[in-house]
Each structure stands twice: as C-alpha cells, then as structure tokens.
Specification:
The chain is α/β, with parallel strands linked by helices. It has helices at residues 10-18, 32-42, 50-56, 69-76, 94-101, 132-143, 156-164, 166-182, 188-209, 213-220, 226-236, 239-255, and strands at 3-6, 25-28, 45-46, 59-62, 84-87, 106-111, 120-126, 146-150. The relative contact order is 0.09.
Length: 256
C-alpha cells in the first residue's frame, strides 16, 4: 500500500521516520526543490506535484495547515476517487473535509509532539466508509510512533487538551523545577536529567500501578515531612485549578 504525504513539516517527518517501509512513501512539499531535498533526506520517493502524488498513492496524508486544505483540494480533487485521506490538522472535522471532497473516506489522526521519539500518543477517528484494511494500516503506522487510541470525533478537542497540548504544560512544569534546583547549586543539565526522570517515572508509576492519583499523592506525603509542604504550596496557589483552566482554554480554542 502506497502512502503519500502532502506537506513535509516536523510532524510529517516524525511520522515518516517511524515508518519501516520507506519504499512505500511518496512526498510532495510546497515546492519541487523542497520535495527533492526532503525526499533525499528521508530516503523516500519525491512526487512531481500534489496531483501526481495522489495518482501514485492509496492513502493521502494531509500534513498542512487547515487554511491550505481548500487550495490543495482544488488541485487534487479530480484524482481522489478510490483513495483515503488522513488529516492530522486540528479544527477540520471529517464533515468539513467531505464537504470539499465528497464521500471520499477520511481518517482524522491527532498525534502529539512525542511521536518524534516514538513515545507519542495518537487519537484516531474515521468516517464510516473507511475500509478495514486501510484503518488497520493507518493505526499500525501511528502505533510505530508510540501508541494509539480510537475515539469518537466529538472527543477530539478534549484529546488535544489532554495530550496534544499537554507536552508544553509538562515542559513548563519541569523548567520551573529545574530553575529552582539551580538555586541550590545544580548544573542545568543535571537538574534537567533528574527532573525529567522524576516526572516520566511518576507518570509511568501512576499508569502501571492503577492506583488513584490522589491516593499516590497522599502516600508520598508523610505527616510533617518535606513533600506535604510543597503540596500545600501547590494547593495554596491553585495548582490544580490552573491546570484545569489551561486544558479548558486549549479545548475551547480548538472548538472555535
């Protein structure tokens, strides 16, 4: 099965890096020179242009900004019959895409930044007319980059808040801890390594143990100990409410 990528930004390149069969991949960037450069870099096949990519591919991954879809669909629309579109763009629903291309099968996939190191999480939802073989192929493609979850399209905005944007929240959390540790004499790289391991280990412990997060928090907080003082400071500064508001702001923005 041949898969074509229209748009070769950071996310598309991360996906391609995680795919084992590079000979099945065709790409088309904004200009032909850029297509040739990135095809050589990624060891994949360059297309002469967008519509030739569609002709030569079975699955078309739209990895461009939402505002570019309409212009590209004007070019490739006549060649889409028998193909499946995979969109990794926020905001554009399956219905919006099919309003432009007709009843072409559409899969929406929302990977997060961590697919670049094969530790991402990708949400997938599809139109009713996507063939099982294609759906399986696309899910396996993203499974190579971490893990996948099948969701209803109405949950996509929630997923973006929970997983798409949350890496930025975690980065800010770690950066704040690192900054404070440096006040105690730690070098930046050492503090970053310690904090990153602490956060990733805690996340894995929470996921694997199956124990409620609040219970685990209480287990770490010995009465009169150091941790409980930090937790009290978080509570006094409305930490949980701040996180909820950040997630909600992301969700609301996607729904606009």
């Amino acid at each position: 099965m041949k898969i074509g990528f229209i748009g070769i930004g950071n996310m598309a390149q991360a996906i391609i890096h995680g795919m084992p069969n590079k000979e099945d991949i065709i790409i088309s960037a904004r200009t032909h020179d850029d297509t040739l450069f990135k095809a050589n870099k990624l060891n994949v096949t360059p297309a002469a242009n967008h519509h030739m990519l569609v002709i030569e591919s079975d699955i078309i991954v739209m990895s461009v900004k939402p505002e570019m879809f309409s212009t590209i669909f004007d070019e490739i629309g006549p060649y889409l019959r028998g193909k499946t579109i995979v969109s990794i763009a926020a905001k554009l629903t399956i219905e919006m895409i099919q309003e432009q291309v007709g009843d072409i099968p559409v899969i929406r996939a929302m990977p997060n930044l961590n697919v670049a190191i094969q530790q991402g999480i990708t949400a997938i939802t599809a139109s009713d007319n996507v063939e099982n073989q294609v759906a399986t192929y696309v899910r396996e493609m993203f499974d190579n980059l971490g893990s996948t979850v099948l969701i209803h399209e109405s949950q996509m905005s929630g997923f973006i808040g929970l997983a798409g944007s949350s890496p930025a929240f975690v980065f800010k959390f770690i950066d704040a801890m690192v900054s404070e540790a440096m006040q105690e004499g730690f070098a930046y790289d050492d503090a970053l390594s310690i904090a990153s391991h602490a956060v990733s280990g805690s996340a894995n412990y929470l996921r694997i143990s199956g124990v409620d997060a609040q219970i685990l928090t209480e287990r770490v907080c010995s009465p009169g100990g150091t941790t409980i003082e930090g937790v009290r400071s978080l509570d006094a500064n409305h930490f949980e409410d701040t996180v909820r508001k950040a997630v909600r702001a992301t969700i609301n923005k996607d729904k606009q």
